[in-house]
Amino acid sequence: MIGNIDNLLNFSNDIFQKKELKSVFIQITSIAQILWDRGWAERNAGNFSINVTGFFNEKELDRLSAYPFFPLSKRYPTLARTLFLVSGTGTRMRDMAKHPAENVCFVYISESGSAYHIIDDNPEGDPLRPTSELSTHLAIQQQLLQKKSTEKVVLHAHVTELIALSQLARFTSEKAINSLLWGMHPETLLFLPDGVGFIPFILPGSDTIALATLKSFETHKLVLWEKHGCMALGASLSEAFDHLDLVAKSARIYFLCKSAGMDPEGLNNMQLKEIHDSLPR
Ligand code: 13P
Ligand code: ZN
Known about the structure:
Blueprint: H1 5-17, H2 22-38, E1 47-51, H3 58-63, E2 69-71, E3 83-87, H4 93-96, H5 100-103, E4 104-109, E5 115-119, H6 134-146, E6 153-157, H7 160-166, H8 174-184, H9 186-191, E7 197-199, H10 207-216, E8 222-225, E9 229-234, H11 237-259, H12 269-277
Parallel strand pairs: 7-8
Antiparallel strand pairs: 1-3, 1-6, 2-5, 3-4, 4-5, 6-9, 8-9
């Protein structure tokens, strides 16, 4: 057990410097920059959680329980003794791209699954608090672990093109929005054959949005929150971003045709069936 502030400081430094995490930090840097460049991360918009438990041994995990801890509003038994890299609430993606370690914290879930410890790059000051969407991230991360999924990342961004689509009443159903998105570009059906989940507007950060999102992720890899943004899953941050990128492209094609004053034709049913039949089973 580590008892004093010097030990805490040294250990935090060790975890942030862990060589196995280098590639994770490189991806955070590059994806945060892209989110900012796309305009999908205005102000503090967007957040992520990455399950990094596999990079740490039991002894290292034991030491994390010496850091400041905070109760959770719900218990996550499957997440006991798991460790996540989580974006800090209020942090900006444009800053994350330059100084990732200053804008993320490790969130270590206690033995009971009902509290979390925060390890940040500055254990002397006030701890950086994890994203306000933590309850949704944890609920999804728990579901991924229960399903023994290879997906370790949950990424949230304010994808402008998809928010715009969700402002149009006729696309505010799963059936309508997926039929539009699949029709705009073959890759969307190829890589997201289960389509996107659609959640009517719910207050961000609430347990209600966490529950609804969880249910939707049982059958999708990307969930659209009406008039707010999206959440995507991936084995890596890069893969989670790919899902957002793919669907945003379909939405962009739709708006491009509309702004040229024309209605897009969309792939017809025969073409969609052909693509669908080519999918690996
Ligand atoms: P946080 O800064 O708390 O992560 O909030 C950003 C956001 O996009 C909320 O939906
Ligand atoms: Zn948001």
